[in-house]
Design a protein that fits this description.
heterodimer; A: alpha+beta; Heat Shock Protein 90; five-stranded antiparallel beta sheet; 12 strands; B: Rossmann fold; Arc Repressor Mutant, subunit A; 2 domains; elongated
């Protein structure tokens, strides 16, 4: 249940309680006072009739015929009506004033003894008074319901309004970039929300500080390792050229190269290079592929045509190398990898297929997630490749290959698709300028 | 003919030695280990290229690079630090090259040779592309023998783009390179590009400066 509806419901219930008890009390008091007043009037009437009967005045009438709803009867010991004003049928006997229904109307009746065994009986029609009371009850009920509804509505609106800053803060918190968490701004004046925002921001600052320290640390390591890695790689490669038959040397040189490229991948992440603009130039994917194929002798390459794109040569190289390296690792040998470069008018497609164990459904779905690894490959390489491909407005997909292995395909927009075409020897820009 | 000279600024002795050995196959090399030494040598001697490690013991490599900006020599920077790398880009905006450490020697040599080649393209004060000739010393431009009159800005644009053919120049980069600190918007660059195109087109050179949608301008390298 949302906080807003909890507050709304709470206030509404409270309003209901207050309205119900106050209208109930008001009605109760009114009904009690009204009943007491009617009783007093009736008993006064009975007493007056008795005193008039004791000292009769000639020609006196107990009931003015113009007074409707008032009846007086003198009833003998045998229960027969001796004298009657206002009503002829006998009135019931009531030692205490009582409310009865006579001829479909509510009447208040009372009696008093008269000359030993007889009785004076008086009836007062109170239908109108009872109606008034019912009207009052009804209007109190309606008013109460209305008060309840309007207060609930106001409560809801107020709750909604006062909780809106929370929603605003939540919205901004959702928009925080986890890579670079910036403080959340709260422009309002609500103290509670400000306290919440401050607490959130303190946490964000701590996270930012921590990740900055981690990044600095990583860069420090990178800096320390950069020269030795470069040197080891260089010397092993040189030795390998001198003694191409030495299997152990080849293994060491491959491992050194592997180490170099993996650390380059990690550094792309650590340096935040994905957030930096690319160094764009005209790049032929076929040339890049030839260079990578040179690093992995044995890989089958099919690249019949040049495939020009606009991109950052280093980054594109990293993409191609990562895919080929991943394939070689999955296949266990370079001969098990086939790379195809198809140049198209709109986009170029580079696919790398291996004859390794292939990808299951989970691997296909999670292939590019950071930290996901299949076999002994680096989980970082493919993640970075995806980021880099997307940075170049391209796309990358993983699928099962025809030979049971895995197949990765990168699509990049061609140079032709990016060049603004001049119309009739005139640039569109120029035309716009003169228009 | 005298071999061209490369100044290697690297404080790691082992790496400096290897760099000197490899680059030394094609060029004369001088190795120094500090920024101050590098500045003194670059000022008093002629180098074609400075290979500059940005992590130096005595001063910030970026500062060295800044002071070398007016120098004849091209600069290729080496850095292992991401923060430096981003500052390098901001500072040079495509004017110089840089390579992240760790690197493969082949990659570094490829960069150095590419720089040297583009330098020799401009050697003798001429840059060529197709029938187009730009005389960078004498400041004239011609297409197949026909002179094309260019303003200083137009000439500068062509010089910049022809010396590094194949690179995409964003409007921001061009504003920076053509106008420096002056407060002009990308419209000024668009106007310069537009005039250059008209003049080249009128001389029969066809489309030389191409627009890459959303990214900037490109002069494709000669099909060699």
């Amino acid at each position: 249940m949302s906080l807003r509806s909890q507050v709304g419901l709470g206030v509404a219930l409270l309003a209901l309680l207050v309205v119900a008890s106050s209208t109930g009390l008001a009605y109760g008091w009114f009904a009690r006072d009204q009943a007491a007043e009617l009783r007093r009037l009736l008993l006064e009437d009975v007493a007056r009739v008795a005193s008039l009967l004791d000292a009769p005045v000639l020609g006196a009438a107990f009931v003015d015929p113009a007074t409707p709803g008032f009846a007086v009867q003198i009833v003998g010991a045998d229960g027969r009506v001796v004298l009657a004003w206002g009503r002829d049928e006998p009135l019931p006997l009531a030692r205490e004033p009582a409310l009865v229904r006579l001829d479909g109307r509510r009447q208040l009746i009372a009696s008093a003894p008269w000359r030993g065994s007889g009785t004076i009986r008086v009836a007062h029609d109170v239908e109108a008074a009872m109606r008034t009371r019912a009207d009052l009850a009804r209007s109190l009920a309606w008013g109460g319901a209305l008060a309840f509804l309007s207060s609930s509505l106001v409560a809801l609106v107020v709750a909604r309004r006062s909780l809106r800053p929370l929603e605003l803060v939540a919205e901004r918190a959702r928009a925080v970039d986890p890579q670079a968490p910036e403080a959340i701004a709260y422009p309002g004046r609500s103290q509670e929300v400000r306290a919440l925002t401050d607490a959130l921001n303190a946490t964000l600052t701590a996270i930012r500080e921590r990740s900055r320290r981690e990044r600095d640390f990583l860069l420090e390591i990178a800096h320390e390792l950069a020269a030795p890695l470069t040197l080891v790689n260089y010397h092993l490669a040189a030795l390998r050229r001198e003694r191409p038959a030495d299997a152990e040397l080849r293994s060491a040189a491959d491992a050194a190269q592997e180490l170099l490229h993996t650390s380059q991948d990690l550094l792309v992440l650590a340096r935040g290079e994905l957030e930096r603009p690319l160094d764009l130039a005209l790049v032929d994917l076929r040339e890049l592929l030839a260079r990578v194929a040179g690093e992995y002798p044995g890989v089958h390459c099919e690249a019949p045509e040049p495939a020009q794109v606009i991109g950052d040569a280093d980054r594109l190289m990293q993409i191609v190398r990562n895919l080929v390296r991943n394939g070689v690792q999955a296949a266990g040998r370079p001969e098990g990898v086939r790379v195809t470069l198809e140049a198209g008018p709109e986009e170029h497609r580079l696919s790398v297929e291996d004859d390794g164990p292939g990808l299951d459904a989970e691997a296909l779905a999670r292939m590019f997630e950071r930290g996901f690894r299949r076999g002994r490959g680096s989980g970082v390489g493919l993640t970075i490749s995806k980021d880099l491909v997307e940075q170049h407005d391209g796309s990358i997909t993983a699928a099962s290959g025809g030979g049971g292995g895995a197949r990765f395909e990168v699509r990049l927009p061609s140079l032709a698709s990016r060049v603004e075409v001049a119309s009739a020897g005139r640039e569109p820009e120029d035309a716009a300028e003169e228009a | 003919m005298r071999r061209e000279r490369v100044l290697i600024v690297e404080d790691d002795g082992r790496l400096a030695e290897v760099l000197a050995r490899e680059i030394g196959r094609g060029y004369d090399t001088v190795v120094v280990g500090t920024g101050r030494e590098a500045l003194v040598r670059a000022e008093t001697e002629a180098f074609a290229l400075v290979l500059l490690d940005l992590n130096l013991p005595d001063m910030d490599g970026i500062e060295v690079a800044e002071q070398l900006e007016g120098n004849e020599a091209d600069v290729v920077m080496l850095t292992a630090r991401g923060d430096l790398a981003s500052r390098v880009r901001g500072l040079y905006a495509g004017a110089a090259d840089y390579l992240s450490k760790p690197f493969q020697m082949e990659e570094l040599l490829a960069r150095v040779y590419a720089r040297m080649r583009s330098r020799s393209r401009a050697r003798g004060g001429f840059v060529h592309r197709g029938g187009l000739t730009l005389a960078t010393d004498e400041r004239w431009c011609a297409f197949e023998g026909t002179r094309i009159d260019l303003s200083a800005q137009e000439f500068h644009l062509l010089e910049l783009m022809l010396e590094t053919q194949g690179r995409v120049f964003s409007k921001d980069t061009l504003v920076d390179r053509l106008y420096g600190a002056a407060d002009v918007g990308p419209n000024a660059v668009e106007a310069v590009v537009s005039r250059v195109r008209k003049k080249l087109d009128a001389a029969g050179a066809g489309t030389v400066v191409e627009t890459i949608r959303g990214l900037g301008y490109l002069i494709r390298p000669d099909e060699a």
